[in-house]
């Protein structure tokens, strides 16, 4: 089959202005709850896009770990490619692809580092294996073989087998302060429904506009 022949129509339902919540965080939480209830694979997975010093965009998938009116939160190695990008350009975009529900959410904003206390609270809540992996992996660096990574992990596992695992200084989180959120619902004949919330000012006030598909 040719790639140009691969398509499907979207028929699960539309999205109307009267059904939208005034606060985009409330609207997002509603859709996220519905994605979880629908048992989607990795409903909190989101594509994170950053740009390097040459203007080259990069994307990767991470997991959303918390959300409130202050923004979207994720955690990473602070020496990773995305963290290095954010040092020079803290503009960022997030994308949630909930294909089975024929929905997408696109977020733009700026990234701010979390406090040490926030990082510590989440790090200590993680499974022990995840804590060890955060220390063992120098994220985005080049390695010659997987065995090097596995060997470091086993070394750390033995070292901290009977004690608490210290949070590494090179690990932490970011809060994305939202500038806009777009909600996309698939529609028949490619007449999709798109609504974008744009922050009016520093207060929690939002302008809602419909976008053409």
From TrEMBL:
It catalyses: pyridoxamine 5'-phosphate + O2 + H2O = pyridoxal 5'-phosphate + H2O2 + NH4(+); pyridoxine 5'-phosphate + O2 = pyridoxal 5'-phosphate + H2O2. Keywords: Flavoprotein, FMN, Oxidoreductase, Pyridoxine biosynthesis. Homodimer. The gene is pdxH. PANTHER family: PYRIDOXINE-5'-PHOSPHATE OXIDASE, PYRIDOXINE-5-PHOSPHATE OXIDASE. The keyword Flavoprotein applies. It is an enzyme of class 1 (oxidoreductase). GO terms for biological process: pyridoxine biosynthetic process. This is Pyridoxine/pyridoxamine 5'-phosphate oxidase. Residues 171-213 form the Pyridoxine 5'-phosphate oxidase dimerisation C-terminal domain. Pathway: Cofactor metabolism; pyridoxal 5'-phosphate salvage; pyridoxal 5'-phosphate from pyridoxine 5'-phosphate: step 1/1; Cofactor metabolism; pyridoxal 5'-phosphate salvage; pyridoxal 5'-phosphate from pyridoxamine 5'-phosphate: step 1/1. Catalyzes the oxidation of either pyridoxine 5'-phosphate (PNP) or pyridoxamine 5'-phosphate (PMP) into pyridoxal 5'-phosphate (PLP). Its EC number is 1.4.3.5. Residues 32-156 form the Pyridoxamine 5'-phosphate oxidase N-terminal domain. Binds 1 FMN per subunit. FMN binds at residues 60-65, 75-76, 81-82, 104, 139-140, 184, 194.
């Amino acid at each position: 089959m040719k790639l140009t022949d691969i398509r499907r129509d979207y028929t699960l339902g539309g999205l109307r202005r009267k059904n939208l919540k005034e606060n985009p965080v409330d609207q997002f939480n509603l859709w996220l709850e519905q994605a979880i209830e629908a048992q989607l694979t990795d409903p909190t997975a989101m594509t994170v896009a950053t740009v390097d010093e040459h203007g080259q965009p990069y994307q990767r998938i991470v997991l959303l770990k918390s959300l409130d009116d202050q923004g979207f939160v994720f955690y990473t190695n602070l020496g990773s490619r995305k963290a290095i990008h954010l040092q020079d350009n803290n503009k960022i975009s997030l994308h949630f692809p909930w294909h089975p529900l024929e929905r997408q959410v696109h977020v733009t904003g700026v990234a701010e580092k979390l406090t040490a206390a926030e990082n510590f609270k989440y790090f200590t809540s993680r499974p022990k294996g995840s804590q060890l992996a955060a220390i063992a992996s120098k994220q985005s660096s080049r390695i010659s073989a997987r065995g090097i990574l596995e060997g470091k992990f086993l070394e750390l596992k033995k070292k901290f087998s009977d004690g608490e695992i210290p949070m590494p200084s090179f690990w932490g989180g970011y809060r994305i302060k939202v500038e806009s959120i777009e909600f996309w619902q698939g529609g028949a004949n490619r007449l999709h429904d798109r609504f974008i919330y744009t922050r009016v000012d520093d207060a929690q006030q939002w302008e809602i506009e419909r976008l053409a598909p």
